[in-house]
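Protein modeling request. Please complete all fields; requests missing the sequence field cannot be processed.
Requester role: graduate student
Desired output: 3D structure, token encoding
Chains: 1
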Amino acid sequence: MDENQQESEGPVEVLNAAIAGTEGLGEVPVADHVVRFEAAHTALTDALGSIDEV
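Delivered output (54 residues):
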């Protein structure tokens, strides 16, 4: 998720998009799980990092 997309979405949408990226893991090879979890981690880290005065 890029910064422009994150800025246009609220925190709930960002969290839902990150979680949605981990859905369906049972249907993909285990090797692909890492990529999905890393993408979710990055999105969540970016969202948390954008919070002011925490």
